[in-house]
Design a protein that fits this description.
- The chain is of the alpha+beta class.
- The chain folds into 2 domains: about 150 residues, Protein Transport Mog1p, Chain A; about 90 residues, OmpA-like domain (60s Ribosomal Protein L30, Chain: A).
- It is built from 6 helices and 12 strands.
- The strands form 3 sheets. A 6-stranded antiparallel beta sheet has the order 1-4-8-7-6-5, with helices on both faces. Strands 9-12-10-11 form a 4-stranded mixed beta sheet, covered by helices on one side. A two-stranded antiparallel ribbon has the order 2-3.
- Strand 6 and strand 7 form a beta hairpin.
- The chain is elongated, with a radius of gyration of 23 Å.
- The termini are far apart.
- This is DUF4892 domain-containing protein.
């Protein structure tokens, strides 16, 4: 017969194994995920779907005739990973959002949309209709949303949504969408997104600008977007770095940007430009 002490040890061992398995299940995420989860965050909901038609929201949302409408979206077929984490007590949504955002921006990417607080619109729409998880609903002033395209192989679209609920619970949600075929449509940030990134992060890299290209659509689009962004906040000043910076800065001046608000910086990078807030 087993002694009482040995039986107690066996029971303890089983209990410890079950607890460990429970913790691993609560923190496990697919290996394909492009970010490391926030430390000690617990998976609240996880869904993976292959070959699904999916819309990546890259603009404001609203309800029209009881239907969700996005100002801009990318809709195509591909594989979707959808995961929501509950963030440990004592950490706010801004910390969790920044942790994930910095990982995304460290990769080769195109920023598509970024909003915070009430400018994002209805939290109920984001939670229940866009992201399909009711626990993501909370005060509109306590939310943030980001959408980027990752330009490595394979191409991916990644969306982040962070919220601090009324009960102070904090959640971070991620959609990672891998199109079956790469999206070749030219996509740009909104002027408000570009301005917000300059304010928050201090700089924006634009490798696609080529002032000497025969097809000027990309460069003209960036000139128009940056011009609108600068017009919406007349206090922002920038310096443009890169071999093509002189021509790009002249393009901004031709659109009416005052010379005092834009400067030519260093000749690097050789390709594209780097826009830095002064």
């Amino acid at each position: 017969m087993l002694s009482r002490s040995r039986l107690a040890l066996m029971v303890y061992g089983v209990g410890l194994s079950l607890a460990t398995a429970s913790i691993q299940a609560a923190t496990a995420v697919p290996e394909e995920l492009v970010i490391e989860p926030y430390p000690r965050a617990q998976v609240a909901k996880l869904r993976t779907v292959e070959d699904i038609e999916h819309a990546v929201v890259i603009g404001g949302i609203r309800r029209i005739n009881n239907q969700l409408r996005a100002e801009r979206e990318v809709r195509t077929t591909g594989d979707l990973i959808r995961v929501s984490w509950q963030i440990p007590e004592g950490h706010d949504s801004a910390e969790a959002f920044k942790h994930a955002k910095q990982q995304l921006l460290a990769r080769d990417h195109a920023m598509l949309f970024f909003c915070e607080g009430r400018e994002c619109g209805s939290s109920s729409l984001w939670a229940n209709q866009v992201l399909e998880f009711s626990r993501l609903y909370g005060p509109e002033e306590a939310q943030a949303y980001l959408a980027v395209r990752l330009d490595d192989e394979p191409q991916r679209f990644v969306s982040l949504y962070a919220i601090t609920r009324g009960n102070r619970e904090v959640y971070l949600h991620l959609d990672q969408f891998t199109p079956t075929e790469p999206v070749t449509e030219r996509l740009y940030p909104t002027p408000s997104t570009l301005l917000k990134v300059l304010r928050k992060d201090g700089s924006v890299s634009v490798p696609s600008v080529d002032m000497a290209a025969a097809d000027t659509d990309v460069t003209d689009s960036w000139l128009r977007i940056l011009n609108r962004a600068l017009r919406s906040d007349t206090q922002v000043r920038i310096v443009v770095h890169g071999a093509q910076a002189p021509a790009f800065v002249q393009g901004l001046k031709d659109l009416g940007v005052r010379p005092q608000r834009v400067e030519v910086g260093e000749p690097a990078p050789e390709n594209g430009i780097l826009i830095v807030r002064l």
